[in-house]
């Protein structure tokens, strides 16, 4: 018999039973389910709803269930359709009918919602830790290569020279926004739904705040209907995950480009590349390509869950069973990508000789010529026009701006003086970008200091939390 089978006269069709079962994927919530059940039964005892003897027996039985789960000896059974019923049925087998009292004053609707909140809080912590590890790898790479010049691009065309560290730190601060998004998502995950019952609450004199305190929730849901039907916290996590994956995909795409023969700016370590089954010379950036590819997977998880939720009237519906696989997949993907990207970046080789050549042989110093003329008093729009004419002339002559003589430059404007050449080297162009957040070395050092403070403060904060607990 099903635990809910009292109203039914026929057993479930095996096809329907297999179709409606969520055990194949929600079994991974067993830790959260046991954690919530312990807090719930202790509250029932404190409120006098269950006797102290019953509470002790149930807690003892839950310990036995946990031991079986940890040692892979737990007898999962498809007919009990989910992790909640499987645990409750096994508890009853171990301690007798008193096991059925565990479900007093709760429904699977608020039970699963609690499990999901507990799970998501743990995953958000893991995600934030993964982001911090990746930021640390980026920061170390930026510190190690401070001073290395890098061709900056717009439209994938050479634009202006910058510091490689400046380029890397752009990703550090992208990831910082991701960290903040997950920190904000934590606030919605940190709300306790247990006690909402199926949808209307319960007539038992429960103490929801006791359960919230034991499970370290900062608040409880104010409305029982909302508590069992809300999946915003999952959606918010997946939205943050999708944005994070977009950032990581952009970084992966750049690494792929930079490692090509055409760019040859970086070389990936052999441990984070693969070869070809037919072309022995190949070194393929498969890790970065898969990061790029898995981004679509996380986007799909978000859109799938949004679609599940978009038409559901209050309160709970079995459609919401589809939430777990989407979140499990999104979380697993993000955590694996963060880990592998940190390893890839920490072993990345920068080809400094190639970069030194790259920043010399282009027209990325043209903006500095226009700025030079503007500082001499020429309106910038006119300075832009003059500089464009100079570039066109240099292209026709097969020269770069540094190769032109002062006489050639003065054909286009009498404002050119010999001091213009002091502004045209890549080092000078980079050094001139002293505005806050710019690529000048002193500004990039400020960025590095800020990044180090962020990570150091995060570590200090964790230490403080550990001491408090």
CA-to-CA gap between the ends? 44 Å
How does the helix and strand content classify structurally?
mainly alpha
What do the pLDDT scores average to? 94
pLDDT < 50 stretches: 463-469
Shape: elongated
- What portion of the residues fall into strands of 2 or more residues? under 5%
Cα Rg: 30 Å
Biggest sheet architecture? 2 strands, antiparallel
- Count all strands and give the number: 6
**H/E order of the elements?**
HHHHHHEEHEHEHHEHHEHHHHHH
The helix content is 55-70%
Number of DSSP helices?
18
Oligomer: single chain
Strand order of the largest sheet: 1-2
Write a concise keyword list for the protein shown above:
469 residues; mainly alpha; two-stranded antiparallel sheet; two-stranded parallel sheet; 6 strands; elongated; disordered C terminus
């Amino acid at each position: 018999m099903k635990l809910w089978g009292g109203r039914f006269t026929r057993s479930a069709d095996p096809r329907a039973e297999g179709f409606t079962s969520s055990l194949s994927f929600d079994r991974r919530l067993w830790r959260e389910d046991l954690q919530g059940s312990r807090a719930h039964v202790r509250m029932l005892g404190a409120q006098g709803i269950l006797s102290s003897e019953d509470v002790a027996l149930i807690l003892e039985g839950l310990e036995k269930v946990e031991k079986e789960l940890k040692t892979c000896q737990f007898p999962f059974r498809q007919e009990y359709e989910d992790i909640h019923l499987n645990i409750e049925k096994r508890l009853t087998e171990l301690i007798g009918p008193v096991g059925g009292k565990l479900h007093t004053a709760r429904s699977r609707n608020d039970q699963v919602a609690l499990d999901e909140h507990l799970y998501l809080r743990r995953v958000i912590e893991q995600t934030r830790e993964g982001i911090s590890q990746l930021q640390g790898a980026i920061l170390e790479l930026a510190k190690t290569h401070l001073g290395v010049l890098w061709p900056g691009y717009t439209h994938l065309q050479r634009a202006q020279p910058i510091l490689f560290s400046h380029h890397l730190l752009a990703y550090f601060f992208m990831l910082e926004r991701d960290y903040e998004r997950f920190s904000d998502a934590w606030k919605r995950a940190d709300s306790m739904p247990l006690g909402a019952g199926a949808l209307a609450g319960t007539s038992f004199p429960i103490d929801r705040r006791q359960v919230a305190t034991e499970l370290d929730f900062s608040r409880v849901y104010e409305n029982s209907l909302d508590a069992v039907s809300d999946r915003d916290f999952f959606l918010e996590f997946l939205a943050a995950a999708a944005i994070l994956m977009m950032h990581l995909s952009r970084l992966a795409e750049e690494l792929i480009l930079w490692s090509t023969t055409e760019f040859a700016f970086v070389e990936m370590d052999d441990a984070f590349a693969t070869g070809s089954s037919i072309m022995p010379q190949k070194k393929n950036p498969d890790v970065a390509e898969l990061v790029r590819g898995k981004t679509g997977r996380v986007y799909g998880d978000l859109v799938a869950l949004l679609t599940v939720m978009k038409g559901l009237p209050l309160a709970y519906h079995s459609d919401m069973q589809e939430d777990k696989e989407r979140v499990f997949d999104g979380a697993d993907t993000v955590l694996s990508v963060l880990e592998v990207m940190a390893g890839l970046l920490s072993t990345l080789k920068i080809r400094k000789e190639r970069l030194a050549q790259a920043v010399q042989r282009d027209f990325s110093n043209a903006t500095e010529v226009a700025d030079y003329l503007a500082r001499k008093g020429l309106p910038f729009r006119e300075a832009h026009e003059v500089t464009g004419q100079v570039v066109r002339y240099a292209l026709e002559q097969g020269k770069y701006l540094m190769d032109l003589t002062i006489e050639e430059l003065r054909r286009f404007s009498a404002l050119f003086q010999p001091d213009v050449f002091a502004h045209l080297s890549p080092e000078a162009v980079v050094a001139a970008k002293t505005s806050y957040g710019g690529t000048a070395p002193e500004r990039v050092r400020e960025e590095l200091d800020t990044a180090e403070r962020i990570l150091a403060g995060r570590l200090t904060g964790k230490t403080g939390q550990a001491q408090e607990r």
